[in-house]
Amino acid sequence: MECLVVTKRKTVYDYNIPFEIWTKIKPLLPLAKSKKKSGRPREDDWKILSGIFYVLRTGCQWKAPPRIYGAPSTVHDRFQEWQKAGLFERMWQAGLLDYDNEKGIDWEWQAIDGAMTKAPLGGSGTGANPTDRGKKGTKRSLLTDAKGIPLSIVADGANRHDKMLVKKTLDAIIFERPSLDEGIQNICMDKGYDYPDIRELVKDYGYTAHIKSRGEENIRIEIPGFRARRWVVERTHSWINRFRRLLIRWKKKIENYLAMLHLACAWITFRTAGLFG
Question: Domain Insertion element IS402-like: where (predicted)?
Fold first, then answer.
């Protein structure tokens, strides 16, 4: 006897920003520009932000969001306005604050890693991808806490070596890092960072470096009490790739691409904080 399995299909309303998050975001919005001439009333900010999230999540073109979010040109214009105002980075900071209050950022074991993304249209912050026959690509460098909560993210050309992005990534942490008096902070890195200057750099930043190859990590799993820690940053990269607008970089301007990354990190952080299901 066959069993019928019914799955819930996403509707356009599943992309709306939840009320629990909107109450955190609304105070962060920049003041709307005053109009010189009377005309149409300004589209609702919540509706427009939901439209931006729809583009981020589905990967559709800016002209493709459903009309319930307003005119596509308005959605894109508001994205540009908010990107210039730094809204999406402030949203991420607000998410980290909530997460820290609810669960606590685990600074003891941090992890850093890079991931490459195709960038067919090129633009700033792209380069020849050595793993994709020299095609244009972008590398993002991500730092997370011990549970995989994103703390910093930067982007550069795919031909940029991981080690060259370490300082930039550590300088871009968007939440106040505790002083070393509050405890030891470790940083986990793969063999791509195994260079004397990188070990010295992270030491200067107050970290104890743990740089091991994957093979070494697999061997140590057999040791009683051993706990692998670097995998959390790889999982967070996977979470980011679920936002289809980030799976392939279609934006030429690096600042627009980073704004979408910040929005994705904000969503991951708010969700992990348990503000919505």
Answer: 21-92
Amino acid found at 122? G
User: Can you give the pLDDT at residue 72?
Assistant: 95
What is the residue extent of each domain of the chain?
106-247
Query: What is the average per-residue pLDDT within 71-94?
Result: 97
CA dist 277 and 274 (Å) reads: 7
Flag whether the pTM goes above 0.85: yes
Q: How is residue 72 written in tokens?
A: 């596509």
State which amino acid sits at residue 257: Y
Q: By three-state DSSP, how is residue 11 classified?
A: coil
Residue with tokens 């941090």, as numbered in its chain: 110
Give 165-220 pLDDT, tens digit per residue: 999 999 999 999 998 888 899 999 999 999 999 999 999 999 999 997 545 555 55
Three-state secondary structure of 226-266:
CCCCCHHHHHHHHHHHCCHHHHECCCCCHHHHHHHHHHHHH
What's the CA gap between 97 and 188, in Å, rounded? 23
269-274 long-range contacts (CB < 8 A, ≥24 apart) are 269/92, 269/95, 269/96, 269/98, 269/99, 269/149, 269/150, 270/21, 270/24, 270/95, 270/98, 270/99, 272/99, 272/103, 272/147, 272/149, 273/95, 273/98, 273/99, 273/102, 273/103, 274/102, 274/103
Summarize pLDDT for 30-58 with one digit per residue, the tens. Answer: 988 776 666 678 889 999 999 999 999 99
